[in-house]
Write a structure and sequence with these properties.
Helices cover 74% and strands 0% of the residues. It is mostly helical. The model has no long low-confidence stretch (mean pLDDT 91).
């Protein structure tokens, strides 16, 4: 009987799909801004903050292990399918596991840990930047049709020292997005028993 309560059911998978779709639409809309060089580093700020509301609402539905990790892997697969390569898939797995462990440590009922969970989850976004720092020439070869002005602007905005800054920004802005989502969804949190 206890094992059945921990097993994912159709409703759980449906919630993952619904909130994953909402989160991906926000991600995709913000990612379009990346065509403007100055917005490329700001994706580590905007996606975690704007995605905080649907993700925190998703956490009110999470009561079983695996749901956060599945959502993270869906994001990684979507990034792979949209041409971002394998790096986001790897960071999604790591961030998904860390987020999963954090939320589980609060027995799926701790609102403060829910905020930290989203901060950890948001670190997956850093995987989209990794090709820029690990395969500089390959990254810009794929974006040659953006024009030399775009490449020059991105090179100035994204020196190597920006890598840890972006990773930290993903986490911190995830915390901000989590706090925003928690405050806007206070009634949902109370109803779900998240205190």
């Amino acid at each position: 009987m206890m094992n059945n309560k921990k097993r994912l059911e159709g409703r759980d998978l449906m919630n993952i799909g619904i909130y994953g779709a909402i989160y991906f639409v926000i991600l995709f809309a913000v990612a379009m801004l990346g065509m403007i060089p100055i917005f490329l580093p700001l994706l580590s700020v905007l996606v975690p903050i704007l995605g905080g509301i649907p993700f925190m609402l998703f956490l009110t539905k999470v009561k079983k292990p695996g749901m956060i990790l599945i959502l993270a892997m869906i994001m990684g697969i979507m990034m792979l399918l949209t041409g971002m390569g394998p790096w986001p898939l790897m960071t999604c797995a790591i961030a998904g596991i860390l987020a999963e462990l954090m939320f589980k440590s609060g027995e799926y009922k701790n609102a403060k840990k829910a905020v930290i969970t989203y901060g950890l989850f948001s670190m997956w976004i850093f995987g989209n930047y990794l090709p820029l720092f690990t395969d500089y020439e390959g990254y810009f070869a794929q974006r040659a049709d953006y024009g030399q002005a775009y490449i020059d602007a991105v090179q100035k905005l994204m020196p190597l020292w920006m890598a840890p800054v972006l990773l930290i920004a993903c986490f911190v802005c995830g915390l901000i997005g989590g706090l925003l989502g928690r405050s806007l969804l206070k009634k949902h949190f109370e109803k779900a028993g998240l205190v």
